[in-house]
């Protein structure tokens, strides 16, 4: 049985599980194929805890953390309401196809509704039909926006 809860970033078990899941995602070809840097592993959870707009959910099977959803609140100026962006959704490879991603997304949606958000947003790779199918099955879609997601890297000093 899998239980999804909001992570307690001060709980060492939760913190380790979050970092391990994110590292597994980073190592996966869909996450870039490289392990998290030592800096990211060391500072990730503290950074999430310090970020006032973050909320993280974990999925646990027995005592093992097998999935994570990292989200950040934004704000829709056109609707004058908060939005919740799903930044990362990770399910460990050995735990996939068991409904864990769906359970995490359900928790994200419920949290967004409880916070009076107007939408849950996310990004999905064009070459990830498995994730796209899951998202579509839960009501996500390309929307009617002509916008693209662009990135300008900032040099770390």
Radius of gyration: 16 Å
What's the number of extended β-strand segments?
Answer: 5
How many helices?
A: 4
Average pLDDT taken over every residue: 92
Order of helices and strands: EHHEEEHEH
Q: Beta fraction of the residues?
A: 25-35%
Rounded to the nearest angstrom, the distance between the terminal CA atoms is 45 Å
CATH architecture: 3-Layer(aba) Sandwich
CATH-defined topology:
Aminopeptidase
Number of domains: 1
In helices, the fraction of residues equals 25-40%
Task: Tell me the structural class.
Answer: alpha+beta
What is the makeup of the main sheet? 5 strands, mixed
Q: How are the strands of the biggest sheet laid out side by side?
A: 1-2-3-4-5
Which of globular, elongated, flat, extended, rod-shaped describes the shape? globular
CATH superfamily: Gcn5-related N-acetyltransferase (GNAT)
| Regions with little confidence, pLDDT below 50 for 5+ residues | none
Q: Indicate the CATH class.
A: Alpha Beta
């Amino acid at each position: 049985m899998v239980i999804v809860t909001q992570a307690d970033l001060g709980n060492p078990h939760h913190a380790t599980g979050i970092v391990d899941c994110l590292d597994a995602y980073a190592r996966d070809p869909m996450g870039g194929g490289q392990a998290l840097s030592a800096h990211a592993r060391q500072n990730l959870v503290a950074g999430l805890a310090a970020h006032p707009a973050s909320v993280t959910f974990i999925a646990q099977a027995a005592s093992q953390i097998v999935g994570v959803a990292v989200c950040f609140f934004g704000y829709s100026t056109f609707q004058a309401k908060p939005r919740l962006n799903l930044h990362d959704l990770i399910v460990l490879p050995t735990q996939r196809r068991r409904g864990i991603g769906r359970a995490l997304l359900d928790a994200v949606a419920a949290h967004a509704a409880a916070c009076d958000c107007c939408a849950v947003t996310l990004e999905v790779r064009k070459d990830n039909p498995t994730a796209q199918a899951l998202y579509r099955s839960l009501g996500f879609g390309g929307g009617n926006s002509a916008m693209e997601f662009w990135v300008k890297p900032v040099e770390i000093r």
